[in-house]
Amino acid sequence: MLNNTSSILAPICTDQTLNGQETDEDCGGGLCPKCEDGLKCQGKNDCISDVCGAGTCQ
Q: Structurally, how many domains does the chain consist of?
Protein backbone atom coordinates (compact mmCIF):
# COMPACT_ATOMS: atom_id res chain seq x y z
CA MET A 1 0.00 0.00 0.00
CA LEU A 2 1.37 3.42 -0.96
CA ASN A 3 1.44 6.31 1.44
CA ASN A 4 0.29 9.60 -0.10
CA THR A 5 2.42 11.78 2.18
CA SER A 6 5.34 13.51 0.56
CA SER A 7 8.80 12.88 1.89
CA ILE A 8 11.37 15.60 2.37
CA LEU A 9 14.78 14.73 0.96
CA ALA A 10 17.84 16.02 2.76
CA PRO A 11 19.88 18.40 0.64
CA ILE A 12 22.88 16.77 -0.93
CA CYS A 13 25.78 19.16 -1.29
CA THR A 14 27.17 17.48 -4.42
CA ASP A 15 24.08 16.99 -6.59
CA GLN A 16 24.57 20.12 -8.75
CA THR A 17 21.08 21.32 -7.74
CA LEU A 18 19.97 24.24 -5.58
CA ASN A 19 17.97 22.52 -2.85
CA GLY A 20 17.46 22.33 0.88
CA GLN A 21 18.88 25.35 2.69
CA GLU A 22 21.60 26.00 0.09
CA THR A 23 22.00 29.63 -0.98
CA ASP A 24 23.59 28.64 -4.30
CA GLU A 25 24.17 25.34 -6.04
CA ASP A 26 25.74 22.94 -3.52
CA CYS A 27 26.95 25.63 -1.08
CA GLY A 28 25.88 27.88 1.76
CA GLY A 29 22.95 27.53 4.08
CA GLY A 30 24.90 26.08 6.99
CA LEU A 31 24.79 22.41 5.96
CA CYS A 32 26.98 22.59 2.84
CA PRO A 33 30.44 24.11 2.41
CA LYS A 34 30.67 27.89 2.17
CA CYS A 35 30.26 29.48 -1.28
CA GLU A 36 33.04 30.91 -3.43
CA ASP A 37 33.12 34.56 -4.50
CA GLY A 38 30.45 35.41 -7.07
CA LEU A 39 27.92 32.87 -5.80
CA LYS A 40 24.65 33.72 -4.03
CA CYS A 41 24.49 34.24 -0.27
CA GLN A 42 22.10 35.40 2.43
CA GLY A 43 24.76 36.37 4.95
CA LYS A 44 28.51 36.31 5.59
CA ASN A 45 28.36 32.77 6.99
CA ASP A 46 27.46 31.47 3.51
CA CYS A 47 30.76 32.72 2.03
CA ILE A 48 34.35 31.46 2.19
CA SER A 49 35.42 35.12 2.38
CA ASP A 50 32.86 35.86 5.14
CA VAL A 51 31.69 38.80 2.99
CA CYS A 52 28.16 38.81 1.52
CA GLY A 53 27.16 42.00 -0.29
CA ALA A 54 23.92 42.50 -2.23
CA GLY A 55 23.26 38.75 -2.08
CA THR A 56 26.62 37.74 -3.57
CA CYS A 57 29.78 36.40 -1.94
CA GLN A 58 32.66 38.83 -2.42
A: 1
